[in-house]
Design a protein that fits this description.
The complex is a heterodimer of chains A (405) and B (223).
Chain A: H1 6-17, H2 19-55, E1 60-65, E2 90-91, H3 92-102, E3 106-120, E4 123-132, H4 134-140, E5 143-146, E6 154-157, H5 159-164, E7 172-175, E8 184-192, E9 206-210, H6 211-218, E10 223-224, E11 226-231, H7 237-248, E12 255-259, H8 260-303, H9 305-313, H10 318-355, H11 365-368, H12 370-394, H13 398-403
Parallel strand pairs in A: 4-9, 6-8
Antiparallel strand pairs in A: 1-11, 1-12, 2-10, 3-4, 3-7, 3-11, 5-8, 6-9, 7-8
Chain B: E1 4-15, E2 22-33, E3 37-41, H1 48-55, E4 63-68, E5 71-72, H2 78-87, E6 89-92, H3 104-116, H4 124-131, H5 136-139, H6 148-160, E7 166-170, H7 178-193, E8 197-201, H8 205-208, E9 213-218, E10 221-222
Parallel strand pairs in B: 3-8, 3-9, 6-7, 7-8
Antiparallel strand pairs in B: 1-2, 1-4, 4-5, 9-10
Helix pairs in contact in B: 3-6, 4-6
The chains are: A alpha+beta (405), B alpha/beta (223).
Transmembrane segments (chain A): 23-44, 277-297, 331-356, 368-391
Family (chain A): Belongs to the ABC-4 integral membrane protein family.
Domain ABC3 transporter permease C-terminal (chain A): 280-398
């Protein structure tokens, strides 16, 4: 008994007869599917993770000094630009203008920042030092352990920095490079709650003190690296942006205003472009698999020419011969795609965990959806690749085919 | 007088080759009636197998008409000719030509499934195998596990499974020893006595003796 679809049964038996060859051909598809799905899922998870983090900031705007480019992309102020030693700063006058504009829409506050060398005991490193208004600090930051800094010698630190340098309440940090001048010693009075990557302020790897402390170390009173604006109504974002542009950038660009949606768009677009590019490279593995399947199918046709002749001579239609070889390619493709899908979920999970750091969005439709897409591509490539060998088989002359040895 | 089940009218077959055309059949006209057992004889290269391939619809005549059960095959397309091979013609080859992927039983059942689009639930396959002397144990084996005689018996059962009007045999004993050849010819003789139309190509005069009539082909023509 071979079932009603005898043509399919013949295809299955042919695959089984050449098991090792079939497995190797299907392995190519497995690798291709895993590569495409894993990379796609990694990209999707990156995008979803960043989008989710930035969505909390939908009502926030950042104003930074105009530097001729697009302004800082991520992680808030910090890095090289100090408030005390260059012109790239928002002045007290500009801040007052911003404050006046924002008054009816929400609140605005200033941030001073500097990236500097630090020393804790014998350990050295770099960290971003933020200077914030003491009142604002209480409003926007949450201390997990300890308290908010009250004096000009006390600071709070981000949880990642505290973990790396084993900082505890009472730990002392020397800020500044001893080779370039004097250092300032501050005492940790609090450790902040984890805040993650943020457009307005990235505190996880930072030291945060009062602006008085900051000016005491770096100078630059009344000069700010960034102004953050919190708007009460999301719909006012555009109005505030326009008003600041009109006031401060009318004659020449002095400030850059960014909202999170633009940043989200920018990050999503960058990640998406990178993902597509890497997926295209991964797609090459499927192309190699396609060549392998084509080779296997051509071998199968060449080995079975006589069998094709027999089938034709006893009444098998051309379309049925065509179907038999398409089925064979399809079996390789579907088996490869299914195994590839299972492997993709396992490998993709590991890749996402390793590269993105969280699998929170792994099973989101936008992420796991890459598995069926990769499966469909893998199986379709197999079937398309099998068309020519199948067509060739179906068009063999029965007498010529019967003569084959 | 019986009605003709096979009729050829000035059938020619020319193979165009780069070195020049080769004429295999030079205008053959013949008629085979229902229930006849006809042997086609002739030396190698005379065109006997080419003639059988035309009658079996495996090939098309270059010119002339071939009528099978009154229908002109010239007017048929590939699909119709394939269908005719499935339902009206049973072919027995010198090299048995069983499908290596299928068991003996499945080889016989294959044309039945192709015609009826279902497995044989009538017992016909088993009956035919029993008729040609293949028991249940042997019918589970693949062709490469069977002797030449056993394979040819299975090929006969396969050729008969769809109860074709014509049974075509191309040197059916050519690959068998004399004892097995005798057994195969007895099966064919028995089928003829039951009314089956048989056309057999052979170069063996002893085998040809089983036929009612012998047609000799020489240089592509009826001698």
């Amino acid at each position: 008994m071979i079932g009603n679809d005898i043509i399919f049964a013949l295809s299955v038996r042919s695959v089984r007869l050449h098991f090792l060859r079939s497995v190797l051909a299907a392995l190519g598809i497995v690798i291709g599917v895993v590569a495409i799905a894993s990379i796609g899922m990694m990209g999707a998870n990156m995008t979803l993770s960043v989008t989710e983090e930035l969505s909390d900031m939908a009502n926030k705007l950042t104003v930074t000094p105009y530097t001729g480019g697009g302004g800082g992309m991520m992680g808030g102020p910090g890095g090289g630009g100090g408030s005390s030693d260059d012109d790239d700063a928002i002045t007290e006058k500009e801040f007052k203008t911003i404050q006046r504009i924002v008054a009816k829409y929400g609140t605005a506050y200033t941030i001073m920042s500097e990236s500097d060398q630090i020393e804790v005991g014998s350990e050295e490193g770099r960290a971003t030092i933020y200077g914030l208004d003491a009142e604002i600090m209480r409003e926007i930051l949450t201390v997990e352990t300890g308290e908010y800094p009250k004096s000009t010698t006390s600071v709070v630190v981000g949880p990642t920095l505290a973990e790396r340098l084993d900082l505890k309440i009472g730990s002392k940090i020397d800020i500044g490079d001893p080779d370039e001048g004097s250092t300032t010693t501050v005492r940790v009075v609090g450790i902040l709650e984890e805040r993650g990557m943020s457009m307005d302020l990235s505190t996880d790897m930072a030291i945060i003190g009062t602006q008085k402390l900051f000016v005491g170390i770096y100078g630059g009173e009344g000069e700010y690296d960034q102004v953050n604006i919190v708007v009460n109504d999301l719909n006012d974002i555009d109005a505030v942006t326009e008003a600041i542009e009109d006031e401060l950038n009318r004659k020449e660009d002095t400030v850059t205003i960014q909202d999170s949606s633009r940043m989200t768009e920018s990050i999503t677009s960058t990640v998406s472009t990178m993902t597509t590019f890497v997926m295209a490279i991964a797609g090459i593995s499927l192309l190699v698999a396609a060549v392998s399947i084509f080779n296997v199918m051509m071998m199968s046709v060449n080995e079975r020419i006589r069998e094709i002749g027999i089938l034709r001579s006893i009444g098998t239609q051309r379309t049925e011969i065509l179907r038999m070889f398409i089925y064979e390619a399809g079996i390789l493709g579907i088996v490869g795609a299914v195994i590839g899908a299972v492997a993709s979920i396992v490998i993709g999970y590991i890749v996402v965990l390793g590269m993105v750091g969280t699998t929170e969005y792994f099973f989101a439709p936008g992420s796991i959806g890459y598995v069926p897409i990769a499966m469909a591509i893998g199986a379709a490539i197999c079937i398309v690749t099998g068309v020519y060998p199948a067509w060739r088989a179906s068009n063999l002359d029965p007498i010529e085919a019967l003569r084959a040895e | 007088m019986s009605s003709p089940v096979i009729e050829l009218d000035d059938v020619k077959k020319i193979y165009p080759l780069p070195s020049g055309d080769v004429t295999a059949l030079r205008g053959i006209s013949l008629r085979i009636d229902e229930g006849e057992f006809v042997a086609i004889m002739g030396p190698s290269g005379s065109g006997k197998s080419t003639l059988l391939n035309q009658i079996g619809c495996l090939d098309r005549p270059t010119s002339g008409d071939l009528f099978l059960a009154g229908k002109n095959t010239r007017e048929m397309d590939d699909r119709e000719l394939t269908s005719l091979r499935l339902t009206s013609i049973g072919y027995i080859f010198q090299k048995f030509n069983l499908i290596p992927l299928l068991s003996a039983y499945e080889n016989v059942e294959y044309p039945y499934i192709m015609k009826h689009r279902k497995n044989d639930d009538t017992g016909r396959v088993r009956d035919l195998l029993a008729m040609v002397g293949i028991d249940e144990n042997l019918s589970a084996h693949k062709p490469n596990e069977l002797s030449g005689g056993q394979q040819q018996r299975i090929a006969i059962a396969r050729a008969l499974v769809n109860d074709p009007a014509i049974l075509l045999c191309d040197e059916p004993t050519g690959n068998l020893d004399s004892q097995t050849s005798l057994q195969i010819m007895e099966i064919l003789g028995d089928l003829h006595h039951r009314g089956r139309t048989i056309v057999m190509v052979t170069h063996n005069p002893e085998t040809a003796e089983y036929a009612d009539r012998t047609i000799t082909i020489r240089d592509g023509m009826v001698a």
